[in-house]
Amino acid sequence: MGVQLRITGAAVALTLLAxxxxxxxxxxxxxxxxxxIDVSSSRLGTGIVxxxxxxxxxxxxxxxxxxxxxxxxxxxxxxxxxxLYGTTGGAGTTVDMRGFGQTAASNTLIxxxxxxxxxxxxxxxDWGVIARESIERIEITRxxxxxxxxxxxxxxxxxxxxxxxxxxxxxxxxxxxxxxxFRHAEGNASVNASSGPFAVSLFGxxxxxxxxxxxxxxxxxxxxxxFRYTGDQGTAFATINAxxxxxxxxxxxxxxxxxxxxxSDPRGTSTPFDYGNKQSVSLTVGxxxxxxPGVELIVDGSVRQKKVQSGFFDSQAVPGTYVDTVLGxxxxxxxxxxxxxxxxxxxxxxxxxDVYHTGYDSDRSAAQGSPPVHRYDIAQWTVGGYWQQTVGxxxxxxLSYGGRLQWNSVTARDQFDPTAPxxxxxxxxxxPFDGREIQHALHLGFEHxxxxxxxxxxxxxxxxxxxxxxxxxxxxxxxxPVLTPTTFDLRTQTSYDLEGGLRLKGGRWSVQAxxxxxHLKNELHLDPVTLADINLDPTHRYGLETIGNLQVSDAVRLxxxxxxxxxxxxxxxxxxxxxxxVSRWTSSAAAIWDIIPKTLTFDTTVRYGSxxxxxxxxxxxxxxxxxxxxxxDLRLGGEVDRFFWSASVQNLFDRQLVDYAVIxxxxxxxAYPLPGRxxxxxxxxxx
Length: 687
Fold this sequence. Notes:
The chain has seven helices and 36 strands. By secondary structure, the protein is mainly beta. It has one domain: TonB-dependent receptor, beta-barrel domain (Maltoporin, Chain A, Beta Barrel), CATH 2.40.170. The protein is globular.
């Protein structure tokens, strides 16, 4: 840790001295002015030079017919989703950037206002806890260049959700209600108020949904409060988030030689009593201060706790497993944003230290109230120092480079009770584990603008992903009747990226195309035979992402994407095979028509994805594959004075959809069917 602090401190000192020595009052002539970085909400700001980036605006979100954030993201190039239930809030949905399939949740880093939303487990992000109405914009950075700024897990890409706040905004309030298919009912409200330097934003949401499947009911409440003070030399803020959720877990539909429940009973359940409950709360506080012209200090930290209770039953009378888990995370992330000249060249530097501590306490019992068979106590510390600098080396050329050095420490213990009910068939006590390592991330990128129409960009990067707690617990193979204790020991996954692309733009159109190439070592993966989490032989991902926009007229805008993604094993027994759950081809087309500006707007989206091998089918030999899909969504909405309304339809042509299936044995599969056509009506008022 001391080495990292000295490296970061020396880097800051050298840059400040260089910039002070060459500082000038104002850039003159045609000197390039680098865009601002909004460090209060994101370290990404306007994007990392050399990376493929996209921003989804507030207007895009409001007019979109998609009801969940994952469905909205699936319109973007390079993003696929896996949904278990198709709920309107996105519960049970995983966002996958650049083809990670089964482990997508741990390889795509999700941020809210620049802070990690991913927890240190396999649960993934619960998208339903983010109030859609609270979002100002969504920043997408593809590939692993975000690893320098954010560290562990930014392998496939980074998605940063920036929420609204009341700073420099008029006082306002918003109330909305919604109802739709499967007895969906929802109410949400928001308030933004400011007085002098003080501002407050409040958001609340309450939703219920019976779900498409039996035993798939969703009950959820979320709330957020943001308080800010803005002065001449800096700001101070505090944000509180809380949510609670109950979700029924209906399991999969079996496909066997004897029958196909996807056809005979798609809405049924194989687990009519399983459920998951969750309660989360977080507090983030921070301050910014201008230390001198062009030098801003940002200090923020957070405390987050998530409690999960899950019940899995063999039958109504015979319980199977009850899991009671508490996951707590504390962080402190001071940083400097330095904007000045370095040797006469415009420069921006973002440098800082991230300190994270995560504690995981999980009791595994035969039933609620029973003594735990296993009690896992696992803790992780990470301390990282990073430096990322962008320099305008010419008026038409920007260069970006940076690095991160991160120390990781994990301690794991397992208490096993051989007298507890259910212990007879449980794995023996896990072996004590104490692991420490140092990892690093690197980024080098450039952009060159030939003229106002043509620009090229490229980058190279290294990233890493530390095994999460569920992967460590599940490290031992399941070889009944001889059961092996877990050692909690897995190697850290690393990724090496190359990317290059072209940007074209005219008066009313723009096109971006990029090619990426990723090589991974020790990729973390669930073995389909032993059910153990393992490190794979090397894997390779490559592809092409294309994005086009056309403003046909002041009232009509078109957007289209086309993505080719190949995720393939390059060594070991599956050499040459595709990684399961990844479509090679995906595309989307969207049209937004302001029929009467503000008063009446129409938005439609068409999404396509090619077929995919199912989870566990690394051999690419199963007779059942996830079928290709074409989904059409549309929305009609508008505003009249203070009132607003919308009517939307998802999956207009009522196609049967399946985003996830897993192989248990030859000719024995379990699939998760999604709802067909669904409708939603919303109405509300603004004050």
